[in-house]
Amino acid sequence: MKCPACGSELRSEKTGETMLDVCDSCGGVWFDEFEFKRFDNSSQPINQDILDLRKKENISVNAEENRICPKCENMPMLTHFESPERKVKVNECPMCGGIWLDAGELAAIRGEFKTEEERNKAVEEFINKEIGPQLKAEKEKELEE
Fold this sequence. Notes:
Layout: E1 11-15, E2 18-22, E3 29-31, H1 48-51, E4 78-81, E5 89-92, E6 99-101, H2 105-112, H3 116-130, H4 132-144
């Protein structure tokens, strides 16, 4: 499989019972569907080698460039924030559900929340802050009618 960021050949690396595809050139990591959730917080074990992957100095990667899925031929991946903290953008294939992270992004994501409960609480707070006032206004409008 070719790296969606730099075009180098990805190599497989086992961590626990999971085989991930990593790029030794740009430091990115490919997660097949559902694999990412096994490693997205710091309480989940992962090989330190994967967290320590770095981009080689002579490799140029445009973080804003749209990535093409390495598994699905010519399928552009969607970009979205991983959490309500909006610190890390991930690339996700709409066809196969795979996720691509550039160098350092996995460590950044794992550093945001210690547990899944902390992540869920942050999502709930974000929804209440961003959507809560709108829902309240709509509910009040319904009661007036």
